[in-house]
Amino acid sequence: MSAEVIRNYAQAAFAIAGVFGILFGFVQYRRSVRTDESELIYKLFVSFYETDHHETVRQLIDQIGHSVSEEEAERILTGTGPGQPGEKEFVNYLNFFEFILGLIERKRLRRKDVDWIFDYYITTVFTTAFIRAYVFKYGFECLQREFERRENIRVRRRS
């Protein structure tokens, strides 16, 4: 075998090894990104469900239509009386979802992961008239775009 043939085989072997190296690197990168997304969604889960940050607002919203009327919930969430969460906690609650939807728009989270954990509460923002009005009145842009996205899906399904 001549030196030229050996060199050609060696170049082919290195090219194949390079392709496998690139593929392996890509797979490792995707796995790392997915791990980062999982860690982030877990932190968001803990922040929302296992800490007191949003508990008062979340519990009140859960009671709308059951033991609390929508009007009473609006008065409590936008009021400042004793024992009421008040507008600051309500805005923090909405900002939490604004942040999550912003992460989806920036492709830092997958929509299906967010929907899996938070869809009920995001949907409640849009199905509760005073919350939806508040979102549009005070410019929660990501929530507004999400409402429009969901509305477009609903309209297409009807067609």
Summarize the model shown:
This protein is an all-alpha fold. The protein has two domains: 36 residues; 107 residues, no CATH class.
SSE order: HHHHHHH
Percent of residues in helices? over 70%
Proportion of residues in extended strands: under 5%
Structural class by helix and strand composition: mainly alpha
**Biggest sheet character:** none
Output the radius of gyration: 25 Å
- SS element count, helices: 7
Silhouette: elongated
Number of domains: 2
Which segments are poorly predicted (pLDDT under 50) over 5 or more consecutive residues? none
Number-wise, the strands total: 0
N- to C-terminal distance: 71 Å
Mean pLDDT: 85
Report on the structure:
The chain is mostly helical. The protein folds into 2 domains: 1-36; 52-158, no CATH class. 82% of the residues lie in helices and 0% in strands. It contains 7 helices and no strands. It has helices at residues 3-50, 55-63, 70-78, 86-105, 111-127, 129-137, 141-158. α5 crosses α6. The model has no long low-confidence stretch (mean pLDDT 85).
Could you list some keywords that capture this structure?
single chain, 159 residues, mainly alpha, 2 domains, 7 helices, 0% strand
Write the layout of secondary structure elements.
Blueprint: H1 3-50, H2 55-63, H3 70-78, H4 86-105, H5 111-127, H6 129-137, H7 141-158
